[in-house]
């Protein structure tokens, strides 16, 4: 029995060591493959027309982020305040910047933490702002369905992002490059 345990420990010790640099890389790849274009396309829908659209969000941006408030003012964006504009602009920029940082592996832990917050706010907005409370969309944990957009799918998103918060970007990242340069400069 001892030789079997020894072989097991040796093999899975190597797997664990490889996992320390493979898991963050795979988590970043998964994020890029599944969510990068999703968030960038979502961000594009929030930009206004022309070059000044970077500072003047579309009405769609307000309807996605503040649906009830926009309806309450008769869809007249000019009646919403600076707070609404700032939140819409921050959310729009976050949809471009945070995914990019994760994919290139720069400030990955902070970017992933920001994306977790973004997913939570997005989910709460879907439920309370847009009324996405039907079981097919909302989903439920520990049921026999894995297709709920909010509870099921977004749990996987948050898990992937949590892995990046805990492990960092891994060896193949700008974070690792900067860490190596910083350590070399300190030596």
TrEMBL record:
<dbReference type="GO" id="GO:0016020">
    <property type="term" value="C:membrane"/>
</dbReference>
<feature type="transmembrane region" description="Helical">
    <location>
        <begin position="21"/>
        <end position="40"/>
    </location>
</feature>
<feature type="transmembrane region" description="Helical">
    <location>
        <begin position="82"/>
        <end position="103"/>
    </location>
</feature>
<keyword id="KW-0812">Transmembrane</keyword>
<feature type="transmembrane region" description="Helical">
    <location>
        <begin position="110"/>
        <end position="129"/>
    </location>
</feature>
<keyword id="KW-0472">Membrane</keyword>
<dbReference type="InterPro" id="IPR032808">
    <property type="entry name" value="DoxX"/>
</dbReference>
<keyword id="KW-1133">Transmembrane helix</keyword>
<protein>
    <recommendedName>
        <fullName>DoxX</fullName>
    </recommendedName>
</protein>
<feature type="transmembrane region" description="Helical">
    <location>
        <begin position="155"/>
        <end position="178"/>
    </location>
</feature>
<dbReference type="Pfam" id="PF07681">
    <property type="entry name" value="DoxX"/>
</dbReference>
